[in-house]
Each structure stands twice: as C-alpha cells, then as structure tokens.
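Record passed on underneath.
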Amino acid sequence: MEDSGCVFCDIVHKRADSYLIIQNEDTTTFLDSSPIAEGHMLVVPNKHVITMDQLNDRKAANELMQSIIGAAHLLVKAGVCPDYSILQDNGEHAEQDIKHVHFHIIPRHANDHVQFNLQTNSNAQQEEMMRNIYNKLKITNGGL
C-alpha cells in the first residue's frame, strides 16, 4: 500500500531522488534531506503506514527494527559518529511532520549543540497519576 502524495512513498518507489543507503523488501534507509547533523538518516517501512500503532505486519515490524539497528551500526562502523540518537514521532500532537512512519538516526558528537529539551511533567509523576495510568494499561492489556 502506498500514498501517492507521500514523499517517503515516492522515495521508496524511486519516484523522488534521495541518497538511498539500504533498501530491502520491507524497509528503506536514506539520508535526511534536512539533516540535524552530518549522516542523519531516516528509516521507513516500504508500506505506507502513518503511525506505529497501525503497523500490524509482524515481519515488517521486525525488519524495521533490524534496519534501524543496521543503520546505527553502519554509522558507527563507517566512522561517521561514535554515538547517535534515535527519534520517532506519531501523530499531530507528537509533531509528526510527514505522515509515514519514520525513524531519525542522528549522529552525535561531543559539543554538537544538538539538544532535546524534554521536561519532566511533575503532575504525571505523582503517585496517584502513575497508579491510575498503570491500572488503565493493566486492564486494557488483560492484566499483567
């Protein structure tokens, strides 16, 4: 399945130019055209899936994880970076910019000035809130 208006589908099907690094039956890895750092890569499933919770194909999901690990390994082995961050957003409120599942693998170096300022939500960490969320998840999962 693909979305004809999706830039990642266009890259997967080679209708758009990219710096393709690795492609297999289930995933495609390429350099991000708006990199945060040199070597910033994206790993996408070849099927058009908008968010992770919609990825129902176990084989494709496993291959996606293997491709993420492989891309990270490649960055380190090639000497592009010693460390890396992996980021992934799902949906509008998570600031997902392109509506196709994608993982950013961002090379990291000492003093690279890349910052992710995630603040702890003091309300969410309160014991009562933690217990309520835990119970919702436990019930939904059929008990743990």
Remarks:
- The chain has three helices and five strands.
- The chain has one domain: 7-119.
- The first strand starts at residue 20 and ends at 23.
- The mean pLDDT is 93.
